[in-house]
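Predict structure. Chain length: 225.
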Amino acid sequence: MTKETFRKLENYMLECMKDSAHDKEHIYRVLYSALDIANKEENVDYDVLISACLLHDIAREEQNKNPSLCHAEAGAEKAYKYLTENGFDVIFAEKVKHCIKSHRFRKNNTPETTEAKILFDADKIDAAGTLGIARTLVYQGAMAEPLYSVLPDGRVSDGTDDKIPSFFQEYKFKLEKIYSRFYTVRGKEIAEDRRKTAESFYNDMLNEVSSTYNNGTALLNKTIK
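Prediction complete.
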């Protein structure tokens, strides 16, 4: 890929990125992680990979405005349209489209190509460790979602089987499970290096909140006659 092509794609990406949890720095981290993973893989089409990394979240704004939309599917179509209208080959655009469409954890669009698998892993690495925790909290703050839910009996839910969005719910639904979802050896290796810090953060927060509620409700019941 030429520097001119890279800058062209980069500039388009920068025009699209509005989400603080999925900002341009997220894009660069995903790109850099993807290149790290690709260095251990064979027969990687770097033009497809770099393009997909740069464009994989360009429909985040659309999803934020309309949660019924999937940013991966909408972004795949948006990227395909941009590429084909700006001189890129249709076959190339289709390859990039597949990578973007299949990069989302919550969807069942399985990555089939080497480049798609690398993008999937690189994006999930950015949801691992303390970085993944921080990004989740930033995003949920922007969405006005709580840290946790309280069960009918007054106990703090650990997030398991929660229907209401919260940090604990997101941790149990996604952040805790991503480590078993990697396609590449290098991707899994990077993620595993970050796993303990995320587990420690979640467990510490759960213990702190639960002890506050357990002690506080007991004291309140003694105080109120």
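Summary: The chain has a mean pLDDT of 93.
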